[in-house]
Specification:
Layout (H helix, E strand, L loop, with lengths): L15 H25 L3 H32 L8 H7 L9 E4 L2 E4 L8 H21 L2 H4 L2 H15 L2 H21 L1 H27 L5 H7 L5 E4 L2 E4 H12 L1 H6 L6 H5 L5 H7 L9 H29 L6 H15 L2 H20 L9
Antiparallel strand pairs: 1-2, 3-4
Length: 371
């Protein structure tokens, strides 16, 4: 076997061979929605219902998260620690964890709700917010109803997760959607820009009030969750694990071209960790945090190009549906996949588009594939 021998903390399933098998099984479950959605989604209206259900479920998760923060700051005890939901579902006792850090002597708690780790919740809420904004722009009433209240509700919850990847996904997603949306419906996007201006003013006022009145270091808090966490690599500043993986790939062109297999990159990039990161991550399993870097590190440039071809074909198929939400939702799902490795939504949306286009082709409602 080409995998190097290494002692990885976490037991037999974290060993090189054990983790490889486990990761292949996990890949099957992550990609399974592609087939399931393709089997049952036969109408463009179902894609709208899917998007609406995603937004509603995210609002519920955010509401549970607000309850969590209220109890946590009030009592000092996290009512929904990471691992609790798994215990409730499986009945197996897990080691509970909480997302928090100390800033200038102040305990900062990170919302996780029932979304797993704070970063997972933050990414899911960002996707819901982007879908909500596009639904508003497209005039889809079922999604856009009470737009401003929903958007602010999600935006504050995203901030409370203190997830770097969620902040990055939100910033890039808003930029891309604003540019694309302005080309489609300038009138609606003027309203979105107006709401954004109001939200920015409210955020600035809140920033000043929190700093002066409550004497809380909001600027330091934002810095601690963004650029301060980056590590120096041969190619500039990158997030901790990503810097090590990029440096490894830069020195091993075969790995860059073909990848090192699903979930194996930590075996090769461990020695490239910076000393401060190696203190807590050395000898453990890790993957790239940037989605496209994870794809390239596991499947190589060849695998990345094949995935881009798949996305381009989906984009062409979505254009045949005549549905205002198909391409935007695909764009959001692909952005989340390539940026923060949020794969499950991408496969669900892909399956829904494939199922819908196949059903409409069989009934003669759309033309054949351009490929």
């Amino acid at each position: 076997m080409f995998l190097p021998e290494a002692h990885i903390a976490g037991g037999a399933l974290r060993s090189p061979s054990g983790r490889s098998v486990a990761q292949l099984v996990m890949l099957f479950f992550v990609a399974a929605p592609l087939v399931i959605a393709a089997r049952f989604c036969h109408s463009p209206h179902l894609l709208i219902e899917l998007a609406n259900a995603y937004v509603k479920s995210s609002l519920i998760l955010a509401a549970v998260g607000y309850l969590q923060m209220f109890i946590w700051y009030g009592t000092g005890e996290n009512p929904f620690p990471i691992g609790l939901f798994d215990t409730l579902v499986t009945g197996k006792q897990d080691q509970y964890r909480s997302g928090l850090f100390v800033l200038d002597g102040l305990d900062v708690y990170r919302m996780n709700s029932f979304g797993g780790e704070p970063k997972n919740l933050g990414q899911a809420l960002v996707i819901a917010l982007l879908v909500l904004i596009w639904g508003f722009n497209a005039g889809i009433v079922s999604i856009a109803r009470r737009f401003m209240a929903k958007a602010l509700f999600l935006l504050v919850a995203i901030f409370l997760t203190q997830s770097t990847s969620a902040f990055m996904l939100l910033a890039l997603g808003l930029i891309i959607m604003t540019i694309a949306g302005a080309m489609e419906a300038a009138a609606n996007w003027r309203r979105v820009v107006g709401f954004a201006a109001i939200g920015t003013i409210v955020a600035l006022v809140g920033f000043v009030v929190v700093n002066l009145w409550f004497n809380l270091p909001v600027a330091d808090l934002i810095a601690a969750r963004t650029h301060v966490r980056f590590s120096e690599s041969e190619f500039g500043l990158l997030d901790d694990f990503d810097a090590a993986i990029v440096d490894f790939l830069a020195e091993h062109w075969a790995a860059l071209l073909f990848g090192v297999g699903v979930g194996n990159v930590h075996l090769f990039a461990n020695s490239y960790l910076t000393p401060d990161v190696a203190e807590f991550a050395g000898g453990t399993s890790f993957v790239a945090k940037l989605g496209f870097l994870r794809i390239v590190s596991e499947t190589g440039i060849i695998g990345g190009l094949l995935l881009l071809f798949f996305v381009s074909r989906l984009w062409a198929m979505a254009g045949q549906l005549g549905n205002k939400l198909a391409r935007p939702v695909l764009m959001i799902a692909a952005l989340a996949y390539f940026l923060v490795a949020h794969a499950s939504l991408f496969y669900i949306v892909s399956g829904a588009i494939i199922g819908t286009i196949c059903a409409q082709r069989s009934s003669g409602l759309v033309r054949a594939s351009p490929y």
